[in-house]
Specification:
Layout: H1 8-19, H2 22-73, H3 76-131, H4 136-150, E1 152-156, E2 163-170, E3 175-180, H5 187-197
Antiparallel strand pairs: 1-2, 2-3
Length: about 200
């Protein structure tokens, strides 16, 4: 055979030259490098995830311990009794506020009625003094009774016979105010001062 007459080294060299394996070797080198880089990246990411998992596990254990501590420390019966006591206190305060509001409205109505009565008496007193029919003593006594019922005691000057001083008592506040009525100011000023002190 003609082929075997040639030198085998030459035949093998010629045969290998026909295969062109250099590009394949370069591809294999690139693939190997890519695989190494991918393995390193995967290992680093896996290590980071493992560290994160350990951190979360520690945090979960801490939270679990705190939860167990709070559960052991929590007294459900005491908590329920405190809630009931606070509810009772809330309703008691609400009832007291309602009672105070009702009492305030009642006192406002009573005060308005007394003011109207006093205005009526003052108007009748002025008309009676104009008529001069001898009822001035009764008028003064009636006014004094109304003032005393409101907590106002009026003092009369011994020399002139005029009422020049008023002692205003407010039992609700525990106050006592003394007002000198010298007639220099308007009657409405004294009236407002009396009502403010009551």
């Amino acid at each position: 055979m003609v082929l075997f007459d040639e030198d085998p080294v030459t035949l093998i060299s010629e045969t290998t030259n026909q295969f062109h394996i250099a590009p394949d070797k370069d591809s294999l080198t690139r693939i190997s490098s890519s695989l190494n880089a991918l393995g390193s990246n995967r290992a680093s990411r896996l290590a980071a995830q493992q560290n994160a998992l350990k951190s979360l596990s520690r945090r979960l254990n801490n939270l679990h311990s705190q939860h167990e501590y709070e559960e052991n420390r929590h007294d459900a019966g005491k908590h329920a009794s405190e809630i009931l006591a606070l509810d009772a206190e809330k309703f008691r305060i609400a009832k007291s506020a309602y009672d105070v509001e009702v009492e305030g409205e009642r006192l406002e109505g009573e005060l308005a009625g007394l003011k109207a009565q006093l205005d009526t008496l003052e108007r009748e007193g002025v008309e009676g003094s104009r008529r001069g029919n001898g009822d001035e003593g009764d008028e003064v006594l009636l006014k004094l009774q109304v003032y005393r019922s409101l907590g106002v005691d009026v003092s009369q000057d011994a020399n002139t016979g005029t009422f020049n001083r008023a002692v205003i008592r407010n039992p609700a506040k525990g106050d006592v105010n003394v007002v000198n009525v010298d007639g220099k100011l308007d009657k409405s000023f004294y009236a407002n001062m009396f009502w403010d002190s009551l």
